[in-house]
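Name: NADP-dependent 3-hydroxy acid dehydrogenase YdfG
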Amino acid sequence: MKTILITGATSGIGKSTAELLAKQGNRIIICGRKIDVLESMKTELLSITEIFSLKFDVRNLEEVENAMNSLPENWRNIDVLINNAGNAHGLDPLSSGKTDDWDSMIDGNVKGLLYVSKMVIPTMKERNVGHIINISSVAARQTYANGVVYCATKKAVDVISEGMRIELTEFGIKITNIQPGAVETDFSLVRFKGDNERAENVYAGYEALKAEDIADAIAYCINAPQHMCVSDMTIYPTAQAEPRTIYRK
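Structure predicted for NADP-dependent 3-hydroxy acid dehydrogenase YdfG:
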């Protein structure tokens, strides 16, 4: 049984991952901004395993520190950190992009990952064991027009993962960087600020990945033998050739 902390656990990949890892008998710390969803998930999953919930916004350093410091002693030895929280906002060229959107993506996808990791890594180093899984994107592999800032933040996740591996391998800490392709969640709904039609068109004409597919991949990495570390994993739906190319019926 591992103690696993998941950021962005109230929807999409994070929620599916929490549910799967709970069913596999792990203790789960679910983190998110929506207290009602956190409480609902906690109630549901408590019938399966031990669950602790933390409400905070990864973009806010003070909230991260307060939440992590509030963990009871018996929840502080985190075996696996899944840095899943992140966002995409807007699909505009740099010349007309909204700086609030840029700040939200940089703060959530990069700084938030760093804030949470900084709170967890020291204890992992003391124990000489641990596993950090960072959720990047195929957008880190190929920049596309009108998504420059989002692509840059996911490229940063790749670089941070590589840096973590260099710094932490000597302490027995595994680092896994996962790059999902098109996954049908509320990702596009958030990017297009609630425009259902635009969001649905992203996934029209082909079978996109499901959140459960990425959860399965994460579980595989976590359950690998101790001497084995999946360092990088790229996952596309069969219809997607690269970030910009999807073959639709």
